[in-house]
């Protein structure tokens, strides 16, 4: 299914795509009304007609938007040199203390926190990066006796804790933590790729998604952002045409301006969770204008007129009918709105069985 262009929603009423089928039915009915030759008459003899009542219904417009499934945030880890000697497979969720990759046979470890390790940390150093180090190593169980005060000071006891950690990793127990061998994230991360063993550990080495779940984002023109509200229902149509139910969880306020205009991001979440989604494009269907108490007839009742437009065959008495020209509006669930025409709820119209 091809998705509409960004910020240009496809507006339709459900079943509007049955227009081609409606046309075919209409021609068939019209042939019955005025067959032009014997061949047509033979075809018409196979058509059985029935009647259907003109009714009222509430119709709801459907609007389709182009959406993108992607991770809410990504972090690129840059390599500082050396050779990649081992990797953790892409798709692995790494947690506090886990190994991301090995460079020169030395593991790069994931720590939780907000302050990155921007320097080599050693005895007597002070700062928020020391706090991150101590917090993680204590959480990982490397201060079994509780001798470390978790603060911003790298003390003798901090050094002993670091050495115990380094011994557990199987590397030289120096008591110094080198910046290039620790990556700090706010939580568990999903590895989106992996470098090849034997390659240089430079440039963009790893890409991680701090949140394991994917996010469905719909870029919406600023002028149309007021069509969305938190908890509005939505249908997400995946690349294989599978439809999943969801709702709007966020209407962004940050404006992005590019060649497509000015847009804000609307976030949609699936009712059963986004965890099994794959990155790529999707179509997001929302519901717009509503028409209350519309006069409707079955779409099969439409007769396509040679001069253009549509009519219905209205039952006017026992065994008698009249062709009534109508203007049609919205389609929904196998019925079509009659905007103008001399029919009203309770009338009977002819439909092919």
Describe, in plain words, how this protein is organized in 3D.
By secondary structure, the chain is mainly β. It folds into three domains: 14-59 and 291-352, conserved putative lor/sdh protein from methanococcus maripaludis s2 fold; 64-71 and 213-290, Elongation Factor Tu (Ef-tu), domain 3; 75-209, Muramoyl-pentapeptide Carboxypeptidase, domain 1 (Orthogonal Bundle), CATH 1.10.101. The protein has four helices and 21 strands. The strands form three sheets. It has a seven-stranded mixed sheet with strand order 5-9-10-4-6-7-8. The chain has a six-stranded antiparallel β-barrel with strand order 3-11-15-13-12-16. Strands 2-21 form a two-stranded antiparallel sheet. The radius of gyration is 33 Å and the shape is rod-shaped. It starts with 9 loop residues before the first strand and ends with a strand.
